[in-house]
Amino acid sequence: MHLLTRFSRGELKLNRIEAFSDGVFAIIVTLLVLELKVPVLKDHHSVAELAHALIEQLPNFLIRLISFIIVCKFWLNHSHVLGLARHADYGLVWTNSMFLMGQSFIPFPTALLGEYAGNPLAVSLFGCVFALNTMLFIALNQYIVRRLIKPELARLQDPRGFAKSFIGVASYLLGAAAAWISVHAAFVIYLFTPLFYITPPHHEPDG
Amino acid sequence: MHLLTRFSRGELKLNRIEAFSDGVFAIIVTLLVLELKVPVLKDHHSVAELAHALIEQLPNFLIRLISFIIVCKFWLNHSHVLGLARHADYGLVWTNSMFLMGQSFIPFPTALLGEYAGNPLAVSLFGCVFALNTMLFIALNQYIVRRLIKPELARLQDPRGFAKSFIGVASYLLGAAAAWISVHAAFVIYLFTPLFYITPPHHEPDG
Amino acid sequence: MHLLTRFSRGELKLNRIEAFSDGVFAIIVTLLVLELKVPVLKDHHSVAELAHALIEQLPNFLIRLISFIIVCKFWLNHSHVLGLARHADYGLVWTNSMFLMGQSFIPFPTALLGEYAGNPLAVSLFGCVFALNTMLFIALNQYIVRRLIKPELARLQDPRGFAKSFIGVASYLLGAAAAWISVHAAFVIYLFTPLFYITPPHHEPDG
Amino acid sequence: MHLLTRFSRGELKLNRIEAFSDGVFAIIVTLLVLELKVPVLKDHHSVAELAHALIEQLPNFLIRLISFIIVCKFWLNHSHVLGLARHADYGLVWTNSMFLMGQSFIPFPTALLGEYAGNPLAVSLFGCVFALNTMLFIALNQYIVRRLIKPELARLQDPRGFAKSFIGVASYLLGAAAAWISVHAAFVIYLFTPLFYITPPHHEPDG
Known about the structure:
Four copies of one chain form a homotetramer.
Chain A: H1 2-8, H2 14-34, H3 47-82, H4 90-105, H5 107-115, H6 120-148, H7 161-164, H8 166-178, H9 183-196
């Protein structure tokens, strides 16, 4: 009877949503780094030519590293937030799918920025995509907190958490705007934004 | 003795089939979006040139978004239907493998349509592939409902569900036919088809 | 104390080996089909040109389909055999890793055959790689049956199973040899080999 | 109350970290081998030309095989070490993410070495990347042993294990240095380094 009730209410188990999401996250972070291309050398044995080519790839590598860290942060937040839910439902599946679509789009502006780091549009788009992803995460978080939260965890929720979570969005959009004045300023803002929310949302550390 | 019986009857655990399927789905949706290529610019710092190149990629991006949503819908249906089964057997593994093969073929007509959105054959093939995938899902659904369904869930099944599930197939084929008269009409049909069955099959919502 | 004993004996849980293997299998089957390339057309709107290009890709598609089915068959056998084990150990991890390396090599001869279907060396290599993979699976199977089998399942094992399992190896090698006389004969042999062992090893069906 | 305590202390379940890590490992090992490119032949039917092209790819294939084995060894060690932990926390997620980033970087120096096996810089970089990865693993191991180890397993830890684990780092750096004198000497050192620690850390085998 319990199983029947669960099905007729459209309740789903969380484990497959987690497995699907973990697969998507794993592919995104791995391909971020895997997409680094082997440089083409005229003289295969030349140390100087290879060193020069690798140094030229360094900014591209660093940009991918920033994206890697940000996606890992999203994974950690996703892991935390799904841990709050007592079960899944169809609304959660779709909110989560939209969030994952946003995540799987991240390698594109990352690659664009790696190629055209001096182009204000590329730098600005990078920030806009991360702002969008942060908003998609906020939507996922809100959906779970409002509808699916385990009763015993409800009182752990910080009532100002919803307002606070827009700091990340604002910071990425600030970076996206700053790109049109100075691409270097934008990079500094992007670099510091994940540090703001490196601790998970609504979590009180010990001591 | 129970384990022995299970093995001699060819019963398999569902969890590995789910893990394998989730991996395949995760790769498909991620690569759908990941395959967007960084445009080649003559002037790396030109905002106008990059903006022009990105706007040119917009239809390609939208087509990938449609495929992303449809594959997520297939994932949700797959998740629902496997939840009905009490265990797996060899027939299920093969029905599921054929279904996954159909899914992993989706990025090809998607990329084809992204490249040649004005070519009736590309537009038509897109619809045919989704009609085929819907039929493969119907086969999977029928296999589980007829042979492996948990007894307590059997009475939840809508007797008209089997007939209803062909609406999606018919709609995709209609789009595929319409492509030869107007590619725009086909796009409209493709866009609305998943909305028809955005709720899972055989599910009665609350209230 | 039980956990301590388990660790000091080098016993490992099976679930991570299964998850890792399922991930590898999922990537292999998906990329087999995903690697189909969008043809380059001179006239983007020409139905005839696109139809011609797609028909030219048909043999490549069929070869990938054969590989897809064979890898799914390996997945099914892998799933069956790991279900026999009571736990994992370091020897199993390495035997399994070698097996997975063989599997992840499959897309290479598949792509080679898709490109050069008329080249006897490409056709022959395809059979040799599948013969090698079948041998790696036999090694995995033997390792589990000899060292890690659940006691209650031991009597299910067919004593002639070990000898029987070499039929697949012999058949693939026969195809590899036949390729030097007729590539078509080799294709027929490859196509029928997985059908021989489409039922799992050592399994007695009902009725 | 227990769940509340767990959340307020920032404790996380290990299973999603394992699933995410297994996904990353699966993609890395599979793509290592999948990246082998089909050679371009002038005469599609020429056995001699294809044989020549494949033999030319052999060193590239062998280098990828070495990386495959090393990454599988890292997976085994990762699996062993996470099995020691009683739960996860935010520090573990970040230490693990840094470790996975190091792992996902492995295909790049591998591809570089496959292309430019005679270039001392490429050979040296290969060793440096593996030394770095070994250090990242040591950090992960230390984090778990110092903060998260299951009490009953604490006495299994070899007090000299920490010092011993730097042998791998030293050996890879020795190879990286040797590359500037003889690339062949470096290859020999790289080949033997994983054999040193093919048994898991801190494990006492039977008998």
